Amino acid sequence: MVADHAGSSAEDLYRTVRLIRRFEERAIELVRAGNVASGIHPCIGQEAVAAGIGAVLRHDDVMMTSHRGHGHNLAKGSDPARLLAEILGRTTGVARGRGGSFHPLDFTAGIYGATGTLGHGGPMAAGVAWALAQDGTDRVAMCVFGDGAVNQGALLEGLNLAALWQVPAIFVCENNHYATTVPVQVVVAGSIIGRAAAFGIPASSHDGMDPNVVLAATEQAVARARSGGGPSFLEFSTYRYEGHHTFELSAGLRYRGDDEVAAWRARDPVELQGRRVRVQRRQEIDAEVDAVIDAATKFALDSPEIEFDEGLDYLYATKMRLRPGADNA
Amino acid sequence: MPSLSYLKAINRALGDEMERDRTVFVLGEDVREGLTNATVGLLVRFGPERVLEAPISEQGFTDFATGAALGGRRPVVEYQVPFLLLLVLEQIANQANKISLMSGGQAGVPVTYLLTPAGRRAGWGAQHADQPYSVFGHLGVKTVLPATPADAYGLLISAIRDDDPVVVFAPIEAHGVRESIAPADLVPVPLGVGRVHRAGADVTVLAIGHLVHDALAVADELDGEISVEVFDPRTLYPFDWNGLAESLDKTGRLVVFDDSNKFCGLAAEVLATSIEQMRLVAPPARVTRPDSAIIGISAAADRALLPSREQLAAAIRRTYKNGR
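Above: the input entities. Below: the structure tokens describing the complete assembly.
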């Protein structure tokens, strides 16, 4: 499944949103079955954003993602089997099981970061982009974050740096309207794109439920970055059908109503994109995706777990070892 | 033989390493002007793309350095005030220092964080005189505190070449130290390897940073009365436990002279480990800042709070007599 990039035809986009949807559904099943110690932050409902940006970025472009990043990994080219193994904490995972669901860093797919404290990918992406431009390449760096990150100082500082130095970075806000349980209007003063506009960064808001809309907006921003035109900021309005984290499966939170969730489900990106593909072709893709997911599940479950004493093997790039917590000698 | 100042040694290390390795660049506030003297002259030699003037956005530019490192660079980020390193503790300890682990070894983050003015500034008030190096050791971030110009040069070179994040504290009170040294003798100093500045038989004084020079002065004062060995670990983390153990095998007596706050400071760790694992014939002692000391309010208040030569001499005498 590792391709140069995901492709941008209607079928390609459908395959990607379907893959992400089925991957997340399987991951939730594995959470329920007790195979994922961390639980996950599902991105079901938000697949269109990942598919659209993934179709534009090249394999050698860089992406910094967030805790809700499985879809970004898949759209950027992470091997589904190794990504699922990562989520299950297996040594065959994209980060040898040390990143887990929250930080599935995958340099083979250009996923350089997935920060647990929000917004830090912004200035990091600016730094990567600066280095890429200094190298004289046309590679770009993208940071994807949620609406919950837009009040984080480091992100806003990163926007300033990116604009000052006109780096080839694209900042993508997946506005799913909730920071954990808090509605965006309770915590965001002004507007999200207004933050970027204040730094002179071209910024625009788009429908994040339609892969075609995401693709078109992203193409423009990436072209600007590749041609030396500096950073862009894209806000995509989207929605997660599931909870913030799978702990909500049993937490019984009531911060949003069923009607609201149903209204967003009516604009489901997988269904929307599926209607753009011939029925027979859609069935073939569905079968291909299911086979990939089943194979990934088997690969992940059959893979070895991290040994008792191997957890910190990669703590230092220089392989420095720690003193043990207790002297048992 | 030419005389080299501490800050000139830092400046030379930066220039030499930028000359040798085009991926090295400096980033920080007032680095073009070279306000702290660390980066003086680098703008003319290397241009604005490698002497990157940053806005007052420490969190942003520290994360930026992480990104640049992931993009193949070796950034040296300069800070002008000690506590700024705690403002960016998230960026250093939770982001940069965890990427090697979180990526399963796919990438290191070779960033050097250079605090040129580390420690006390008399009369600058409560917010400019902290010495938070123990915090970085506690969190497992490689941390060095050079005492001499040659060590400042050699440790900074090694920090830049290291594939992990490294914090370099350059104590203000060592800035005035000069050393006669031929340029050819300026070489990399490996991280985690201490140095015996003065051999002795009775008591080991472990001193780090600028306090090494005070320890040497006290050792001279006590000469003829007590034979003091002065051991400088040079790197706080990883710590040269073997070097300390070798010294204690000779002396069996330890006084730690440390500019950290007492509670959970470097000295606390050294005392604990020496008691657990090393040869001691008398209880070890420490001379530090008080618990959660706030330094910098006034010169007189500082004198009452900072670890002093008098306190060190008294501690050495006490430790020397103990158990005899």
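Note for the figure: Chain B touches chain A at residues 49, 52, 54-55, 57, 59-73, 75, 90-91, 94-95, 99-110, 140, 162-164, 238, 276-277 (CB under 8 Å).
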